[in-house]
From TrEMBL:
One of its GO terms (molecular function) is hydrolase activity. It holds the Pfam family Hydrolase_3. InterPro entries: Cof, HAD-like_sf, HAD-SF_hydro_IIB, HAD_sf. The keyword Membrane does not apply. Its EC number is 3.1.3.-. It comes from Paenibacillus illinoisensis. Keywords: Hydrolase. This is Cof-type HAD-IIB family hydrolase.
């Protein structure tokens, strides 16, 4: 069956390890779009630092962001769907992070808030620079009136492993996912890339067998299993590869371009 929608993770999938979108990958995706396949970026990033990649390729449509918590229209930046999380329930996680020296940020659809943006450690500052985000100072809960999309803890892999293990013993009111070696995300319990992709596809009358999804990490599994063809990058953990129908080359070998060329352009 013809692929009508291509769902692509961004970091570790679409981009190489230098956070670059290669010219050949861009060319392949533009050709796929011209052939009738809609490109939808599905990222742990927010709309503000996901939409620019669509703009660079001259593509419109939608981006699924914050791991499925926010779906936005590219041209208008309008939020067409969101899974808003309960901010009050975050207090124990904020207290844990502050007590244990774990960096965290709180995300609305387009905003990212931290405790002390002017005093960030170099490693944290470089991370935000790579993700094209400028952190704002976290206000009091009562002053944060925009719906919350995601809570993210960031740190060395050993620290994140410990956090994930400890939070996993809590009675979590949120969906917790590992979106990278150095990131743990908390969201609305119904939010995921797969849930957002399903909602978007159904609104367009697109069935799973008409969807190609490509990703590289645990937060991609829900969309890989929802899509008729789910493809994992070669740089994926083994559990992600096991959940996929197929494995393509790594993000540093332009695996996305190879997969789209094989399943969309060559048919």
């Amino acid at each position: 069956m013809t692929i009508k929608l291509i769902a692509l993770d961004v970091d570790g999938t679409l981009l190489n390890d230098h956070h670059e979108l290669t010219e050949w990958t861009q060319e392949i995706l533009i050709r796929a779009s011209q052939q009738g396949a809609e490109i939808v970026l599905c990222s742990g990033r927010g709309p503000a630092n996901t939409i620019p990649f669509m703009k660079r390729m001259g593509l419109d449509g939608y981006v699924i962001t914050h791991n499925g918590a926010v779906t936005a229209e590219v041209e208008s930046r309008e939020i067409v769907h969101r899974f808003a999380m309960d901010g009050q329930g975050l207090e124990p996680f904020v207290t844990y992070c502050r007590t244990n020296g774990v960096h965290f940020d709180i995300n609305t659809a387009f905003g990212l808030y931290v405790d002390q943006p002017e005093g960030l450690e170099l490693q944290v500052r470089e991370m935000y620079n790579n993700f094209m985000m400028e952190p704002l100072k976290l206000p009091q809960w009562a002053d944060l009136t925009e719906p919350l999309a995601k809570f993210t803890a960031f740190g060395p892999i050993e620290q994140m492993n410990k956090v994930q293990q400890e939070w996993g013993t809590w009675n979590l009111p949120y969906y917790m996912t590992r979106s990278g070696d150095f990131f743990i995300d908390l969201m609305h319990p119904e939010a995921s890339k797969g849930a957002a992709l399903k909602r978007l596809a159904e609104s367009k009358g697109i069935v799973p067998s008409e969807i190609l999804a490509i990703g590289n990490y645990y937060n991609d599994i829900t969309m890989l299993t929802y899509a008729g063809k789910g493809i994992a990058m070669d740089n994926s953990p083994e559990e992600v590869k096991a959940a996929a129908d197929e494995v393509t080359l790594s993000n540093n070998e332009q695996g996305v371009a190879h997969a789209v060329q094989k399943h969309v352009l060559a048919v």
